[in-house]
Specification:
- The chain is an alpha/beta fold.
- The chain is 42% helix and 22% strand.
- The chain has two domains: 250 residues, Alpha-Beta Barrel (TIM Barrel), CATH 3.20.20.70; 73 residues, Arc Repressor Mutant, subunit A, CATH 1.10.10.
- The strands form three sheets. The chain has a nine-stranded mixed beta sheet with strand order 7-8-6-5-4-3-2-1-9, with helices on both faces. A three-stranded antiparallel beta sheet has the order 10-11-12, with no helix packed on it.
- The chain is globular, with a radius of gyration of 21 Å.
């Protein structure tokens, strides 16, 4: 099971919270397509497996491209890999791009899953975040996508926003449930370095939401999603039955993936690799046969820590049999010892020799995962 991720590094405008690599200049948008194709050809041997179970178009804003361009890249992948008949092919999109014409053309393509960046249905929040759609546009975009035949839709929601009260958060989630979508990705607002929000926070122009309020919003999300038939299968992700994100689950299950485009990351069990986060330098290097990525060989203990980080955040948990098989008795016993106190205080449960976070553990997941890391002196 392998996947390909395309990082589309273009946005029509920059959100104030976003730290992902992107450009608001569309000058090189078509030239970038040629570079994607060249990188696919250059890296066709990166994946051990010759079949693809997932293709994911993320960004940035992939919906700045016409659906014909998206299909062209899918067809390019099929030159080097066999795309599974039931492959999950996801396109991230902004609501205001999802007009009738765009959706009609997209339905003719191989894309079978939409991930829509709604963030909030309240215009006050959207203006604060510098989103380029309104709450009503977001709602109508989902309805249009459903009417045209898309039945695997994920929506993004952000909580912990300074302007977001609990009452508004409940309204946001109720609208999501009303739309009967299949998947929710919900993240706490982060003040990443060099974002507009981080600079405003530093200047006192924004005030962070109280920690208790953030906790209550997250807790309400978990409880209400469960009540509405969603499985909380990863810290920030919830799905209806049979609608787990196959692509993102591959990251958490330590499967191989190839990242295409500036700033995209790749993993093939032996090393992690990431492309340069600069459009012009990436394109120049790809076109001239230069170096456009950096690599990191993972040590024995780094691979173990990676397993902890990706496994404990999911409802599958950390498989102790896998730990024993791949890392031996020392790290197996390390996990057993670390888990004991969390099991006693009901932050972790042990099922079928897997360590799984309970709801209470999810709230302090970063602390628990850090505690499980093995630091080689």
């Amino acid at each position: 099971m392998s996947g390909i991720y395309f990082h589309i590094p273009f946005c029509k405008q920059a959100c104030h919270y976003c730290a992902f690599h992107k450009s608001i200049s569309m000058q090189s948008i078509l030239d970038m397509l040629d570079c994607f194709k060249k990188e696919l050809q250059l890296r066709k041997e990166y994946l051990d497996q010759k079949s693809l179970s997932t293709i994911y178009f993320g960004g940035g804003t992939p919906s700045v491209y016409h659906p014909e361009h998206i299909q062209m890249l899918i067809d390019e992948c099929s030159k080097y890999w066999n795309i599974d008949m039931d492959a999950e092919i996801t396109l991230e999109a902004n609501p205001d791009d999802l007009n009738q014409e765009f959706l009609s053309e997209l339905k003719k393509s191989s894309v079978n899953r939409l991930s829509v960046g709604i963030q909030s249905f309240h215009d006050e929040d959207l203006i604060l975040m510098n989103r380029r759609h309104t709450g009503n546009e977001a709602y109508q975009a989902i309805k249009r996508a459903q009417d045209i035949g898309f039945n695997n839709i994920s929506v993004d929601q952000i909580y912990g926003v300074p302007s977001l009260s609990m009452a508004k958060w409940i309204e946001n989630l109720n609208l999501v449930y009303e739309l009967e979508i299949q998947h929710i990705s919900s993240y706490h607002l982060m003040y990443d370095a060099n974002t507009v929000f981080a600079k405003k926070l530093q200047k006192g122009q924004l005030i962070e939401i109280e920690e208790e309020e953030s906790f209550n919003q997250f807790k309400y999300l978990i409880d209400s999603a469960r009540e509405n038939g969603f499985t909380h299968y990863e810290i920030s992700n919830f799905c209806k039955e049979s609608y787990i994100s196959k692509h993102n689950s591959a990251y958490w299950k330590q499967r191989q993936y190839l990242g295409i485009g500036p700033s995209a990351h790749s993993y093939n069990f032996k090393e992690r690799e990431w492309n340069i986060a600069h459009n012009y330098k990436y394109m120049k290097a790809v076109n001239e046969g230069g170096i456009f990525s950096e690599k990191e060989d993972l040590s024995f203990y780094e691979r173990f820590n990676d397993l902890v980080l990706t496994s404990l955040r999911t409802y599958w948990g950390l498989d102790l049999d896998v730990v024993m098989e791949q890392f031996g008795d020392q790290l197996y016993r390390h996990c057993i010892i670390k888990a004991e106190k969390y099991i006693q205080c009901k932050h972790i449960r042990r099922e079928k020799n897997c360590l799984i976070l309970n709801d209470e553990g999810v709230f302090i997941s970063n602390d628990i995962m850090s505690d499980f890391f093995f630091i080689d002196d």
